[in-house]
Amino acid sequence: MSGMRSVAKAALESVENLFERAFGPELNPMHQLGALGWFFYWIVIVSGVYLYIFFDTGIHQAYESLEYITNVQWYAAGVMRSLHRYASDALVIVVMLHLLREFVLDRYRGARWFSWFTGVPLLWFMFACGITGYWMVWDVLAQYIALATTEWLDTLGIFGETIARNFLNPDILSGRFFTLMVFIHIAVPLFMLLVMWIHIQRQNHARVNPPKKLAIGTLGMLLVLSFIKPAVSQAPADLGTVPTVINFDWFYLAAYPLLDKLPGLTMWAIAAGGTLLLLLLPWLPPRRREQVAVVDLDNCNGCGRCVDDCPFTAVVLQKRTDDSGFSEEAVVKHDLCTSCGVCVGACPTATPFRRTSELVPGIDLPDLGMQALRDRVVEAAAGLAGDARVIVFGCKNGPDLQRLEGPAVAAIELQCIGMLPPSFIDFLITRQHVEGIFLTGCILGDCHNRLGNQWTEQRLAGARDPYLRERVPRERIGKCWAGVTHNTRLARELAAFQERIKGLPPYHRAARAPSARQATERSDTHG
Ligand code: HEM
Ligand code: SF4
Ligand code: SF4
C-alpha cells in the first residue's frame, strides 16, 4: 500500500509541477483546492440569491422566468445564471480533486480522520444541490432527471405511492413539486455551509480564501465563459413525450446513465456501499500512532505559541495547575495530535543554548526530543570536514535527504521542518559548529503538516515568534522547498549554497553591530 502510495504521490506531484510552472508556488490552484471550494460555494450562493429574485415557481412559470433571465435580462441575471452553473461545475471539479489529493498524500488517517469523515456528507449535499438545480429549470433535461430520480427513489418502497407517476401525466403534476424543489435547493446549501464549517474545525488557521490574484483570475475566467457560452435551458419539458436529452452535465449527472442500465436497488447498494467505504477509509488500514507531544510544566510559561502554531488544534491553554506563578499552561489533546512537532519549533524554551541543564522544553516529542536533536547535530557537525560544512534540516515527508550527505554535509530528518526552533540555527552558526545551515521541506504552500514551512519562513523573517535573532548572518542560511520529485534540484541548490558560503569571510561573533530590534529581543527566546 505505501509503495503504491509513493508512486501515486510522485505522479501527482509531477502533474502539479506543471501547474507550479504556470502559476508559481503561491498561486498553484492544486494547493488551494479546499479554499477554491469555499470560493466557488460563495459564488454559487451570491448568484443564486440574485436569480431567486426573478425565478418563479410553477409548472410553466419556472421555465418562462428562466427564459426571461437568459434572453431579456441577459446582461445581469443571465450572467448570474451562467456564473451559478459554471461555479457549481467548478465546485465539483475542485472537490473531487481535493478528495483525491488528500487520499494520495495520506492526509486523512490517524488523528486527521475528522476532516475526511465530515467531507463525505458534503459530497451528497453537493450533488443534491446540483440535481435539484437542474430539476427547477423544467426543461427536457429536468424532465429526464425528475423521472429517473423518482423511479430510483420508488425502488426503496418507502413512499406510500409511486412518486414517479407525477412525472408521467401532465394532469397529475402539481406546482407544489416546484415549491418543494426550491425549498430543498435552498435548505441543502445552508446545511452544507454548516458541515463545511464543521469540516475545518480541526484545522488551525484553515485556508478558506484563495490568494487574491487566484480568486480574481478564477472569477474573471468564469465571467468570460459566462459571456462566451451563456448557460441556457433546453426545450421545455413535455410530459406527453419521452424526453431525449441532448446536453448532459457530466459533472453532476454522471451516474444517471447507470440508473437506466442497472436495477434501482443495485444502484442504492453501490451508493450506500461507496459512502460507507469512504467513511471508513481513514481506518483502512488504521495509522500507527506515534508518541504525541508532551508538556513539561516546569518549563512551560503558558505563552501560548504552541497553541497558535499547532496546525491541528491539538494544544489548548488551561488554568495553571501548579504554583509556578504563571496563569496558564499548555495541554495537549491526545487524540488530535499528529506528532508533527510544529509546537516544539514554536516553544521559546526549546533552545540548545541551555548548556548547563538538560534540554527539556515546555513541549516536546518524547521519541524525538530536543535534547537528542542537540546531541545529534553537534555530533554530526563534529564529523564534517572542509570549509563549507553544512547541516541540512529536512522533513520526513519531503525529498530524500540521505542523497545529500557527504564529507561536508550532514542531513537531519525531522517530523516537519516547522519542528526546528530557530535557535538551533543560531546555535550552530554562531557557535561555529558549521559554516551554513540549509533548510528543506515540502513545497511552499503545501506542507504535509499544513503550516510547518510557512511558520519556518515567518520565524526566519522575524514575523513570527520565536524568530531567528538578527545576529545570525542570513547569507549562511540556504533554503529549498522541494517535493519528492525534486531531488536533483535540491542537490543542485545545496551545491550552489556551499559555493556561496565558501566565499564568505569566517564568522566572528562580534562582527555585527546589534540593531535596535536585537537590543529589544526577548531574553526568554534563546535562553
Ligand atoms: C464542499 C466541499 C469541501 C470543501 C469546501 C472543503 C474545504 C476544505 C478546506 C478549506 C480544508 C482546509 C485546508 C487547509 O487549510 O489546509 C479542507 C481540508 C480537508 N478536507 Fe475538505 N472540503 C470539501 C470536501 C471534502 C471532501 C469530500 C473530502 C473527502 C472525503 C475532504 C477531505 C479533507 C481532508 C482530508 C482535509 C485535510 C485534513 C488535514 O489536513 O488534516 N474535503 N477541506
Ligand atoms: S510554547 Fe512552550 S512555553 Fe509556550 S505555552 Fe507552549 S509549551 Fe508552554
Ligand atoms: S505535535 Fe504539536 S503541533 Fe503537531 S499536532 Fe501534536 S501538539 Fe500539534
Topology, please?
Elements: H1 2-23, H2 33-54, H3 61-72, H4 74-104, H5 113-137, H6 140-154, H7 176-199, H8 212-228, H9 250-253, H10 256-261, H11 264-280, E1 294-295, H12 305-309, E2 315-319, E3 328-332, H13 342-346, E4 363-364, H14 370-382, E5 390-395, E6 409-414, H15 422-430, E7 436-441, H16 452-460, E8 477-481, H17 487-502, H18 516-519
Parallel strand pairs: 5-6, 5-7, 7-8
Antiparallel strand pairs: 1-4, 2-3
Helix pairs in contact: 2-4, 3-4, 4-5, 4-8, 5-6, 5-7, 5-11
The protein binds protoporphyrin IX containing FE (HEM) and iron/sulfur cluster (SF4) (2 copies).
- Mean of all residue-level pLDDT scores: 92
The biggest beta sheet is recorded as: 4 strands, parallel
CATH C-level label of the largest domain: Mainly Alpha
Rough outline: elongated
Structural Rg: 29 Å
Structural class of the secondary elements? alpha/beta
Order of helices and strands: HHHHHHHHHHHEHEEHEHEEHEHEHH
Beta-strand content bin: 5-15%
CATH topology of the largest domain: Cytochrome Bc1 Complex, Chain C
Bound molecules: protoporphyrin IX containing FE, iron/sulfur cluster
CATH architecture of the largest domain: Up-down Bundle
Number of domains: 2
